[in-house]
Specification:
The protein contains 8 helices and 2 strands. It is mainly alpha-helical. The protein is rod-shaped.
C-alpha cells in the first residue's frame, strides 16, 4: 500500500517538467476513460488526480491551469461520446460548474499545502530551538558548607562549573557589600563612607 510520505517524497523531488508530463498523461488517461465509459457514467472525480497533483506539488496557478485543461477534456470526451443536450447553454453551464468545483478544490488544496508547509517550518524551528536550550530541573544536591553541587556521576563541582556544564549561563564574579564588610572592614568603611 502506498503511503502519503512515499508519494510526497517521490513527487516532491521531481522537476516541474516531470510533473507537467505526468499530469498531462494522467489527464489524457482520465479523458480517454471518460470517453470510453460514455455519457452515462460520470468520471469527473478522477480529474481531481492530476489537478490535486498540480496544486500540491506545483502551485495554485498550475492547479488552475490543470482545472481548465480538465474542463476542456471533459467537453471533448462528452462531445466525442455523442452527448447532446436540448440546449447549448446546458453544456456551458455544466462545464462552468466543473470549472468552479475544480477551481475551488485547487484553491483550498493550495491553501492547505501552504498552511502545512508553514507548520512544518515552525515545528522545525521549535525543534532546533529546543535542541539549543539546556534546561535545569529537579533537585540539586548542594553542600551546606562549601556550596559545591553533586553531579550525576557523584562528583562534587563548584557551582560555576556545574551551571556552565548544564546550561548556557556564564559567570562574572564580584563581591557583595555584606561580604566586603565581613572580609574587608577597613575598605568597606572607605568605599561606602560609613560615618
Amino acid at each position: 500500500m502506498l503511503s502519503w510520505k512515499f508519494v510526497e517524497g517521490y513527487f516532491g523531488t521531481k522537476s516541474k517538467s516531470f510533473l507537467l508530463v505526468f499530469n498531462i498523461a494522467t489527464l489524457l488517461a482520465v479523458g480517454l476513460l471518460d470517453y470510453l465509459t460514455g455519457i452515462e457514467i460520470v468520471m469527473a472525480p478522477f480529474y481531481l488526480i492530476p489537478i490535486s497533483c498540480a496544486a500540491w506539488f506545483g502551485s495554485r496557478t498550475y492547479g488552475l491551469i490543470l482545472s481548465v485543461l480538465s474542463v476542456l477534456t471533459i467537453a471533448a470526451a462528452s462531445f466525442m461520446a455523442g452527448n447532446k443536450f436540448s440546449h447549448l447553454l446546458i453544456d456551458v453551464w455544466n462545464l462552468l460548474m466543473y470549472f468552479g468545483f475544480f477551481s475551488i478544490f485547487t484553491i483550498v488544496l493550495a491553501i492547505l499545502k501552504k498552511d502545512i508547509d508553514e507548520r512544518r517550518r515552525l515545528i522545525a524551528e521549535l525543534q532546533q530551538t529546543l535542541g539549543e536550550v539546556k534546561q535545569l530541573s529537579g533537585l540539586l544536591p548542594v553542600c551546606a558548607s562549601c556550596k559545591k553541587i553533586r553531579d550525576d556521576n557523584g562528583d562534587w563541582k563548584q557551582m560555576e562549573s556545574y551551571f556552565s556544564d548544564h546550561s548556557e549561563v556564564l559567570f562574572s564574579h564580584g563581591i557583595c557589600p555584606e561580604c566586603i564588610e565581613r572580609l574587608y572592614p577597613e575598605q568597606y568603611n572607605t568605599l561606602f563612607d560609613k560615618q
